[in-house]
Amino acid sequence: MKIYTKSGDKGKTSLIGNERVDKNDERVEAYGTLDELNAYLGLIKTLEIPNETKEFIEKIQTTIFDVSAYIACSSEEICKKYSPAKIGVIEEMEKEIDNISEKLPKQFQFSIPANNILSAQINICRTICRRAERCIAAVKEDFHEKEFVLTFVNRLSDYLYAQYLRFDASTLPHTGN
User: Fold this and answer.
1) SS (H, E, C) 51-88
2) How far apart are CA 27 and CA 22, in angstroms?
3) Max Cα separation, the chain?
């Protein structure tokens, strides 16, 4: 099997279901941004983090594939062929956020990102996630499982922020000067 198909040589790509759209279609931008986030999360897993965090990030990465598929499906019939939305991963992220937050000092100011390579990389993931969220919000009427997708991406950015704070042990407060 060849890696290249030449089907995109004229600036078009296929959604799941073979609907052809421009490569700069807002839905392609949305799931492309999720793809970028997923690649960056893969980088985070190569860094010095606890194994349970790596395992949870892998669960998030798998869910990102599902979320991308919901955005890329060209019809509801095709979308129904995919696994149902994994609401449990949102609840798991909320528990992780709560566990991390309990161990952190109260945040009263913005912090200057970031004070080490790990927290800087996680913060980049957070900003990519926020961009993905904006892209997804722009096309939310064009795909199925909207509520799950929007909630998942919003909670993921919260989770990444909590992880950023967790690993940025020497957070410097921003004084506004």
Assistant:
1) HHHHHHHHHHHHHHHHHHHHHHECCHHHHCCCCCCCHH
2) 10
3) 59
Q: What is the pTM of this model?
A: 0.87
Over residues 100-152, the pLDDT tens digits come to 988 887 766 666 666 889 999 999 999 999 999 999 999 988 887 888 999 99
Number of H helices, E strands in the chain: 6, 2
Work out whether strand 20-22 and strand 12-14 pair parallel, antiparallel, or are unpaired: antiparallel
**Digit-coded pLDDT (tens) for 61-104:** 999 999 999 998 877 777 777 766 678 999 999 999 999 988 88
109 DSSP assignment: S
d(C-alpha 39, C-alpha 117), whole Å:
17
Can you tell me which residue has the tokens 């790509």? 13
Residue type, 119: S
Cα separation, 115 vs 119, in Å, equals 7
